[in-house]
């Protein structure tokens, strides 16, 4: 339409919209709402006055009761932190639900960002996207909700009420597992491992559960309400199907666990909102994660038997896959964090390293004033699952207040198992410079003592650290006990067990009010010399004072047993005559297979010598296909005023700024104060690829103290690749008040240089068959042979009773034989999709 013709603001009411209307023009927010009456009502003014009065009332009461200023400041800080945490959680939940609704669109729009923001099936080619599994879970989800509601109301609620007299009126008032149709545990990717034991099936499920779960709890006695409104859980769960048997159901049991702690985010409601207060939120999330990790994160496993007669202890607590000996040697070129004279003089750092493998964490000594520290420390870690478990290393600068981050690196321990020895420098990430030198050794677990003397002899020669390396590991599976003695006063005890090897002591969980406890826990110890060491077992009451029984087993007894294992009942000393305990103890010798290293090295050298080296590189087809898009943000006109005064009775102006999103990059312009016709004159550049999802998104906002107001989203110029015969294949819609007077103007230009234009009076469509114009038209102002192919369609719709309007549709535009200018675009009217029509 003509640029000086404003668009009508009445909402369109189409009785029978065409398919193109419904598919290509989504209903805007303004069109979805009913028209609002104009003017300011007295109720709105009173409501605004009441809100202002309620905001000032706490200030008046604080002054009236002479509350300390420091207490007020502290309360405001706590409230601000709580509000910030709540808004952040809600924003994460909304964005996660939006991602679950449109994962493909999100992946396309973020395709140029770093890989860790993309789903697992995008990052790793061996991870499959299993939509069929999600569809199955989608069908099961309503019945899962019914089961959970029944479990909470009929089982958990009575148990909580009976645990305390203060909770006798507790009840679940609402249990809603979400009205959105989404799977129970949406699996965004699955990976099957085929290189492991043939007697098992090993799967990795990449889980991303986002649910608008609502669970409300009420304690009527204290008028107290609490609950949960939204949960997020992200992590990788390993599922092992073993043992495989030759009978139905083929699989004997299903074992599930998280290799690393998953990421959990809970949106609290009611009284539990206090858990979002800074300080308490970290504590509450940590306690919840500890509870989950106690039964579902390595080394803990959840085992579901499918057939009877299985040895669940071996499935629940299997022997480790091996041990990795980590030599933290040195680092080089670390970033300097200790600067002087406010950063004018760069200093050095006091670096130290933190190493993590699953729940095992080690911290090195810090070295003062150096960017190239030499640690020379050794650590031994137990590896339960490979591939899967990783070595995470973070380097920090030691400071009196807060330690500065110097970088991190990560290594899959499956590489160490395959290579036996890895001795290399690892570059630190998320830092300007720095690398760390490690030597990692994979130690196999031998079930015999044939190589024990050789292992101890080699360790005495090669040991260069203060703590000597271990020669074996001891795995103790604490099963159960029987007929323990009663406490004083003939009360049943709360037994727990302390297991000690030299100066290392571990404790089991507590079993309450029983003389026949079942612990079913596994413990691991590193052993230096099994001929001289013992394991001491003390069964005590929960208060750690009264001893219910004791047992000492010399490890030399294991050396003479079959398969280095003792799996039997043991009589307890200093206990009842019938008191005994069932323990399974396994000893394994740690062996570094150097013979395999030398054989692999010689075979690799022979293969490399016979391999013909390439003469040229073979780049990927997408190499060097990137292009540069330059965006000029010039000005805006006739923007909507949002900064109103006195409850909207006095119109103000706006403080506009522009947010541009394209190719995974976001640009934000400067804010122009109190101006409805701002001028920015800013330029942005972004590198684009040929991949899909590179659309330009422009949004206009009004800057405010609390929340920025949305001003609209302008349509952008569509830019074609460099060509003299471009094709756009786009459709646009315009509202026409009077077809006899209005015109369609199409301008073609290469940036600011005009290349031709076409003017089509809308009245010409009234004489076309079926009100459709579809042909080539000459471009005025271009070359004599320049033409444009377009299809224009006029549709008449009746709105209300007497108002007649028309929709003008441009279906396709193709231009042939343009002037030889690099790049071209079709220039249209900049329309605004305003949020209030």
TrEMBL record:
State the similarity comment. Belongs to the extended synaptotagmin family.
Kindly list the GO molecular function terms attached to this UniProt entry.
Answer: calcium ion binding; calcium-dependent phospholipid binding; phosphatidylcholine binding; phosphatidylethanolamine binding; phosphatidylinositol binding
Kindly list the residue ranges recorded as spanning the membrane.
Answer: 799-819
Origin organism lineage: Eukaryota, Metazoa, Chordata, Craniata, Vertebrata
Under which name does UniProt file this protein? Extended synaptotagmin-like protein 1b
GO CC, one annotated term: endoplasmic reticulum membrane
Q: Where in the cell is it found?
A: Cell membrane; Endoplasmic reticulum membrane
Q: Which residues form a coiled coil?
A: none
Q: How does it sit in the membrane?
A: Peripheral membrane protein; Multi-pass membrane protein
| Keyword annotations of the record | Calcium, Cell membrane, Endoplasmic reticulum, Lipid transport, Lipid-binding, Membrane, Metal-binding, Repeat, Transmembrane, Transmembrane helix, Transport
């Amino acid at each position: 339409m003509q640029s000086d013709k404003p668009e009508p603001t009445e909402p369109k009411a189409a009785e029978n919209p065409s398919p193109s209307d419904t598919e290509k023009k989504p209903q805007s927010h303004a069109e979805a709402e009913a028209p609002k009456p104009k003017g300011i009502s007295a109720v709105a003014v009173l409501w605004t006055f009441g809100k202002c009065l309620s905001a000032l009332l706490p200030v008046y009461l604080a002054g009236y009761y002479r509350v300390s200023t420091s207490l007020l400041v502290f309360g405001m800080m706590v409230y601000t932190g709580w509000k910030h945490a709540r808004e952040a959680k809600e924003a994460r939940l909304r964005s996660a639900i939006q991602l679950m609704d449109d994962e493909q669109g999100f992946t396309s729009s973020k395709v140029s960002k770093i890989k860790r923001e993309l789903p697992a099936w995008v990052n790793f080619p061996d991870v499959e996207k299993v939509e069929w599994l999600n569809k199955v879970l989608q069908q099961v989800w309503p019945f899962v909700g019914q089961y959970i509601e029944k479990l909470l109301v009929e089982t958990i609620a009575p148990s909580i009420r009976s645990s305390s007299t203060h909770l006798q009126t507790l009840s679940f008032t609402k249990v809603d597992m979400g009205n959105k149709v989404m799977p129970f545990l949406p699996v965004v990717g699955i990976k099957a491992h085929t290189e492991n034991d043939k007697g098992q099936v090993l799967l990795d499920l990449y889980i991303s559960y986002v649910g608008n779960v609502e669970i409300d709890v009420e304690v009527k006695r204290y008028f107290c309400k609490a609950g949960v409104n939204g949960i997020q859980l992200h992590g990788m769960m390993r599922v092992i199907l073993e043992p495989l048997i030759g009978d139905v159901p083929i699989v004997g049991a299903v074992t599930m666990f998280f290799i690393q702690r998953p990421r959990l985010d809970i949106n609290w409601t009611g009284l539990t909102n206090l858990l979002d207060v800074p300080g308490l939120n970290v504590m509450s999330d940590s306690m919840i994660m500890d509870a989950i990790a106690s039964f579902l994160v390595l080394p803990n496993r959840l085992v579901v038997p499918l057939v009877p007669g299985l040895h669940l202890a071996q499935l629940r607590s299997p022997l480790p896959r091996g041990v990795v000996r980590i030599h933290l040697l040195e680092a080089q070129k670390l970033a300097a964090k200790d600067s002087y004279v406010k950063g004018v003089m760069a200093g050095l750092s006091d670096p130290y390293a933190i190493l993590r493998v699953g729940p095992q964490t080690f911290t090195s000594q810090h070295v003062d004033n150096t960017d190239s520290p030499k640690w020379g420390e050794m650590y031994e870690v137990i590896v339960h699952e490979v591939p899967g478990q990783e070595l995470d290393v973070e380097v920090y600068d030691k400071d009196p207040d807060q330690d500065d981050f110097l970088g991190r690196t990560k290594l899959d321990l499956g590489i160490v198992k395959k290579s036996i020895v890895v001795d290399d420098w690892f570059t630190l990430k998320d830092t300007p410079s720095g690398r760390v030198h490690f030597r990692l050794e994979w130690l196999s677990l031998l079930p015999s003592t044939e190589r024990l003397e050789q292992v101890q002899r080699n360790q005495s020669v090669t040991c260069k650290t203060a703590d000597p390396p271990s020669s074996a590991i001891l795995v103790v599976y604490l099963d159960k006990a029987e007929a323990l003695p009663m406490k004083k006063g003939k009360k049943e005890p709360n037994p727990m067990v302390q297991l000690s090897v030299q100066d290392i002591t571990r404790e089991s969980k507590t079993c309450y009010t029983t003389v026949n406890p079942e612990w079913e826990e596994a413990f691991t110890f590193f052993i230096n010399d099994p001929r001289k060491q013992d394991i001491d077992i003390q069964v005590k009451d929960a208060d750690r004072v009264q001893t219910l029984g004791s047992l000492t087993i010399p490890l030399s007894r294991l050396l003479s047993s079959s398969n280095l294992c003792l799996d039997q009942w043991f009589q307890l000393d200093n206990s009842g005559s019938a008191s005994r305990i069932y323990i399974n103890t396994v000893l394994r010798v740690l062996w570094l297979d150097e013979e395999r290293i030398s054989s692999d090295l010689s075979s690799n050298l022979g293969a490399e010598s016979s391999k013909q080296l390439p003469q040229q590189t073979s780049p990927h087809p997408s190499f060097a296909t990137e292009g540069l898009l330059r965006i000029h943000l010039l000005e805006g006109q006739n923007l909507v005023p949002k900064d109103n005064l006195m409850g909207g009775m006095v119109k103000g102006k706006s403080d506009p700024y522009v947010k541009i999103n394209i190719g995974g990059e976001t640009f934000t312009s400067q804010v122009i104060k109190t101006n409805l016709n701002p001028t920015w004159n800013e330029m942005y550049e972004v590198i684009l690829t040929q991949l899909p999802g590179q659309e330009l998104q422009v949004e206009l906002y009004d800057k405010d103290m609390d929340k920025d107001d949305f001003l609209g989203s302008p349509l952008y110029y569509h830019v074609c690749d460099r060509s003299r015969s471009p094709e756009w294949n786009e459709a646009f819609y315009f509202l026409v008040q009077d077809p006899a007077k209005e015109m369609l103007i199409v301008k073609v230009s290469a940036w600011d240089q005009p290349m031709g234009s076409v003017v089509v009076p809308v009245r010409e469509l009234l004489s076309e068959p079926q009100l459709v114009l579809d042909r080539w038209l000459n471009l005025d102002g271009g070359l004599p042979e320049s033409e444009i192919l377009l299809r224009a369609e006029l549709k008449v719709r009746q709105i209300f009773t007497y108002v007649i309007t028309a929709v003008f549709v441009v279906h396709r535009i193709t231009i042939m034989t343009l002037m030889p200018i690099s790049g071209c675009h079709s220039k249209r009217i900049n329309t605004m999709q305003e949020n209030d029509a």
